[in-house]
Amino acid sequence: MKHIFREYDIRGIYASEITAQFTKALGYVLGKIMLSKNAKSVSVGYDARLSNNILHNALIYGLNKSKIKVYSLGLVPTPVGYFSTYKCNIDANIIISASHNPKEYNGFKITINKESFFGDELANIYNEVKAQMDNFDNKIEDVEYEFLDAKEEYLQFLQEEFKDLKNLNFNISCDLANGAASYVAKEILNRLNIKNTCILDEFDGEFKTHEPDPTEEENLQMLKTQMQKDNSSIAFAFDGDADRVVCLLKDKIIKGDELCYIFAKNMQNPKILCEVKCSKIIYDEINKLGECKMCKTGHSNIKKAIKEHNFNLAAELSGHIFFNDIYFGYDDAIYAMLRILRIYNKNPNFNELLDNLPKSFKSDEIKIKVDENNKFKLMQDFINNINSLNLNASIILIDGVRINYDDGFILLRASNTSPYLITRLEAKSKERLKEFQIFLQKELKKLSLDLTF
């Protein structure tokens, strides 16, 4: 069970790893911790997964036992949970979600006093949760909570914040992935009278059409078809809990780091944070505009860093965008969509901005399936091998290993949410990219891992 306590949340397979009994014990332990941190109330929300009714009940049962005041948000996007701690006078929040993972997964994202509960703090409660499980079972229980309609407060906030977008005169298409964005994203577009077509806009925890992961290009095919049908010039795809967004133009999928560059171009002296998978070109170009620093992957790591160092904006390649200029510093895909539309309305030539970037050749984010229990050892063995080679490059160990050359980079890191090693490469020429690929394949073979480009 220990492996489900990941770097920045709890995530595992429902019924075998995440049970009602486990969730009751978790709720009890978290409630006690929240109270010890002077957090006297907690909001609980969940995404569209079929296991969430049982886990919602079990989590609140455990929280009730801890004596903390509980509010239920119902089925909401993860950002609405965060929002409740900023605008609804709630001290803590737990979202039941496994984000983009397949339907059999579920998990918990935890915020206490506006700060993510993650890393060592999260890992250190494992033994206590395990010990408390003897005091609970898998029964459905009567629970006590008040319903809080934070979703409506969030919609009203967005409606006021983006009133300048009222009556936009172009069509947009959205794929809501049958997830938590399904009501909220469509509703705010309608309230702003923005012409839109939303597909997969009903909750479906089976995710029968495609998995709620917009970073996999196969999951964007329906949206591309819908764009053509609607004659839309811009479109958006969301993940399962609506904290990640991918933006599409007619001839381009815009990655999270490219979105970050577009936002930076529209800020004065931007102070930006990007994670280790982001393009070297993007780092170099944003540094010409202001400042761009590198950090570990993971929403909790980024939310902590963005506030500690007062960054204006942070981004992950996967579409987590964190606004800390006139927003609250957390990742919110629906808010990000509206910020994109604000820029697009003033200058629809996104392509020109991106086409004017220095040319580079890069791989997609490639996943290498490994044993969940062995992935961090494999990663350490890879780092040891790289350090022994005396490469003419900068070796960055912020998160896995990023081998930074003047003309590109090679990255390998362990996923914190799935049983994979993740790699990405970038070079200023096709020939150099091929050299990087051959080098990485050779080094992975030393670990008995095969990689095909």
Description:
By secondary structure, the chain is α/β, with parallel strands linked by helices. The chain has 15 helices and 22 strands. The protein has helices spanning 20-36, 52-66, 78-87, 119-123, 126-132, 150-161, 181-191, 221-230, 256-265, 280-289, 299-308, 333-346, 350-355, 375-387, 430-445, and strands at 10-13, 41-46, 69-75, 92-96, 105-112, 115-116, 146-147, 172-175, 196-199, 234-238, 245-249, 252-254, 271-275, 291-295, 313-315, 321-323, 361-362, 366-369, 394-396, 401-405, 408-414, 420-427. The strands form 4 sheets. Strands 1, 2, 3, 4, 5, 6 and 7 form a 7-stranded mixed sheet that branches. Strands 17, 18, 19, 20, 21 and 22 form a 6-stranded antiparallel sheet that branches. The two termini are 34 Å apart.
